[in-house]
Amino acid sequence: MDWGRLRFFLGEVFANFTRNAGMQLTAIGTVAVTIVLLGAFLYVRETLQTFGTGVLSQIEIAVYLKDDIDDAKAKDLATTFARDPRIASAVYVPKREGLKRMKEVLGADFDTNLLTSNPLPNAYHVRVKDPDTVAAVARRIAADPRVAKTDYAADTVQKLLKTAAVLGRAGIALIALLSLSAAIVIANTIRLTVFARRREIAIMQLVGATNFYIRMPFIAEGMLAGVLGAALAIGVLALAEHQVVPKLASTLAFVTFRVNELTLCGELLVVGAAVGLVAAWFSVGRHLRA
Amino acid sequence: MIRLRGVSLVYPNGTRALDDVDLEIEKGSFVFLVGHSGTGKSSLLKLMYREELPTRGEVVVDGIRVDTLRRGRVPKLRRNIGVVFQDFKLLSHKTVWENVAFALQVTGTRTKDVMRMVPRALDLVGLSHKSRMFPSELSGGEQQRTAIARALVGNPKLLLCDEPTGNLDPSNTTEIMELLQRINLKGTTVVVATHNQAVVDRMRRRVVRLEHGRILHDDERGYYFRGLGQTAVLPG
């Protein structure tokens, strides 16, 4: 390794970077804002997904049987359920069991003495393997002549799934747009430094430096701006996670999930570097061809 | 060393800088390109280091067809050609040493070699004692010597000078011309574009006179104006 060459190269990058400090800060800030939003978006999306899949995996279809179906007849249904590959489990809840559970849930608010008879029907609690099949399975079961009614959190489930999908698409579009704007700001910054260094570039070309060599410091500079922006963003996100999330968690029970921080940080840094690289490559390339 | 055949150069704005020029420059020679400004001297030099491409014709430098040279090959060509300008083109934030070393560093020369070659070039132009100074602390002549050291540090076979004394007073001019002559004596081919009559007439080297993009005359041991010596009266 030729340390002298490395030192020269790094010296050039650093001198370049500090000469346009104001513009560089703008570029770093833009990258940071983009990546904070990206990070926040990833956080929200993953929270929703974790929450969503958690909820969905617990979704039960309550299958209420007709009044004339007694325990013995109800047991026959179990074999019907067993034959459906989409069903994960089917638990029989006879009416007395149902009443007992209701008492447990409602506690003192529920006064059983007011009841002269058990108003609950015999029921099954059915769980499916794939949350997407809930609606279809529920319809199929409802068609059975022994079944009076099926019930599940249909609306909630559908809305949650739809929200997650829409959020995913909108988020990708938003991030793409933000990355583009960050890249444009970096590209403009680099173009300014290219302009400020046009003498040096002219001399480099004159003495026979390759375009690759001329480009390298600018690429490094662009990537540096990107990485610094990402690092700043990670700082902001980390702060937000430690300050805001615990408060949210106390009011919204489901915000308990934590991002795999190292992986996420790595990803964000790579995004920053990539944005800087692409921006620098294009803005210097335009100059070199001219 | 240099061969131009039927070379014409028309700029995009329609200006005809060179018109059917044939020129041959031998290895190790010293040649003046003279003529008023705008007669195509600089354009001719630019064709040689491929800053411009001819509209028509053939340009060969050191056995390389420059006019058809692939873009990627240009750096290699340039490493064999030193170029010096009227305005020196030094980097003001770098010292003399750094300016000269820059030419080597950006072409990927090993530090070990840089440390060996820069002092030699500075010694050649007589600036070893000012290597830590910045261009603003130097006289015009010293700045041009720095530029020459930068042009020569990579041991090119050809040195092209575009009005090298255009910004210098007479004593600095003499100094630079003597330096160029010494460089030529060491075997480097030197081509100097100038409209400094005194310089040309004193040196008595080959003189190629351009006018309106054509070669008007080409004399061995010539004068700025054909047939006239230093006694010539400068036209208004």
Short description:
The complex is a heterodimer of chains A (290) and B (236). Chain A has 290 residues and is of the alpha+beta class. Chain A contains ten helices and four strands; from the N terminus they run H-H-E-H-E-H-E-H-E-H-H-H-H-H.
What does this structure look like?
The complex is a heterodimer of chains A (290) and B (236). By secondary structure, chain A is an alpha+beta fold. In chain A, 72% of the residues lie in helices and 8% in strands. Chain A has ten helices and four strands. A four-stranded antiparallel beta sheet of chain A has the order 2-3-1-4. Chain A starts with a helix and ends with a helix. With 236 residues, chain B is α/β, with parallel strands linked by helices. Helix content of chain B is 31%, strand content 25%. A six-stranded mixed beta sheet of chain B has the order 6-7-8-3-9-10, sandwiched between helices. A four-stranded antiparallel beta sheet of chain B has the order 2-1-4-5, covered by helices on one side. The N and C termini of chain B lie far apart (36 Å). About 2% of the residues of chain B have low confidence. Classes of the chains: A alpha+beta (290), B alpha/beta (236). Chains A and B meet through α1, α7 and α8 of A and α2, α3 and α4 of B.
